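Thread: fructose -6-phosphate complex, take 2
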Amino acid sequence: MKIEILKTKEEIGKRAAKEFIDVIQKNPEAILGLATGSSPIELYKNLVQAYSNEEISFKNVKTFNLDEYVNIDKNHPQSYFTFMNQNLFSEIDINMNNVNIPAGVGNLEEICKDYNKKLEENVRDIQILGIGTNGHIAFNEPGTKFTQITHITQLAEQTINDNTRFFDKKEDVPTQAISMGLSNIMDSKKIVLIATGKNKASAIKQMIEGKQTEELPASILQNHKDVLILIDEEAASKLKN
Ligand code: F6R
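Output below.
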């Protein structure tokens, strides 16, 4: 694991974008693994900027998102599809046929199977990740098998509490999601993980310095050969070195 501690969210976003821009410049048909939530927002701003400056084009890029809430239609204001459209897709020249986000409504077992097949056929060149305060990556909650593939997952109480900030009230937060499994995430050729703020410090410490355990899903990344961890000083505050 390569770890970089940077001062601000903006610097982190710029640094993460550099990795993505490099990948797209080397391969205009790159396959990107994308995430939602607060962590990647600055990355997406920088990618939109790079597109506006004509440094990169997304015309032939394919994307695969980590997850989607169950029982939330893609047009719902809090769906991850809406999030991606608002923060990235509507601002760039991507072909929407090349955008892949699992649907949260329909025959969920079939959706998982199909998404997993597509992931196997489309190995990601680079994957962006955030991390939950409980150490989850995508919605692989503590206790998820390291061998897990795309699945329907029950969100942990801590995750529901953390995500309440995006909804009017806790009761509105979905309790299930469709998520790439840990095994799918590990297939990506390169991984960039972003974390900022004190509430991530404990998960970051366990991910980097703790023993590898399914109780801290992000600890699986200790096994990946190309991981870049971008954190601010608060998220790094519990690290020994
Ligand atoms: C989002 C996802 C989640 C988030 C994590 C951190 O697609 O899969 O694992 O990355 O919950 O969320 P933020 O960035 O909002 O702190």
